[in-house]
Amino acid sequence: MPSTAACSRLTVTALIYAMGERQADLAEAVGITQRQVSRKQSGTALWSLDDLDRLSAHYGIPVSDLPRGADHAISRLPAARRAAHLGAPGPRSPSTD
């Protein structure tokens, strides 16, 4: 079983992919630098509890879903927030009524 730190890195990687983001996008959204995201994702630094709060707010999922693993966290993403490559709903067609 992976450590909590490793699980956090895997979950964040999966969420970045699921949202179609880059590390720079995530960094801007949670108020840290891209370098800090890179260090956290490489294991050189750890995601803090405050970071998890900001990740939770950014992804729109409860903070308690983050440590439960990548598959669970992705399943909790609002459908409208998922990237198109994960089956997110596409743009609505204008009504012909």
CATH fold name, please?
434 Repressor (Amino-terminal Domain)
Shape verdict: globular
Query: Which percent bin holds the helix content?
Result: 40-55%
The CATH architecture classification is: Orthogonal Bundle
Number of domains: 1
Total helix count? 5
Number of strands: 0
Query: How does the major sheet shape up?
Result: none
First CA to last CA: what distance? 55 Å
Structural class: mainly alpha
Keywords for this structure?
mainly alpha, 434 Repressor (Amino-terminal Domain)
Outline of the structure:
The chain is an all-alpha fold.
Description of the structure:
The chain has 97 residues and is an all-alpha fold. The chain has one domain (4-80): lambda repressor-like DNA-binding domains (434 Repressor (Amino-terminal Domain), Orthogonal Bundle), CATH 1.10.260.40. It has helices at 4-19, 23-30, 34-42, 49-59, 70-76. Helix 2 packs across helix 3 (34-42). The radius of gyration is 15 Å and the shape is globular. The model is unreliable at 90-97 (pLDDT under 50).
Set down the secondary structure blueprint.
Elements: H1 4-19, H2 23-30, H3 34-42, H4 49-59, H5 70-76
Helix pairs in contact: 1-5, 2-3
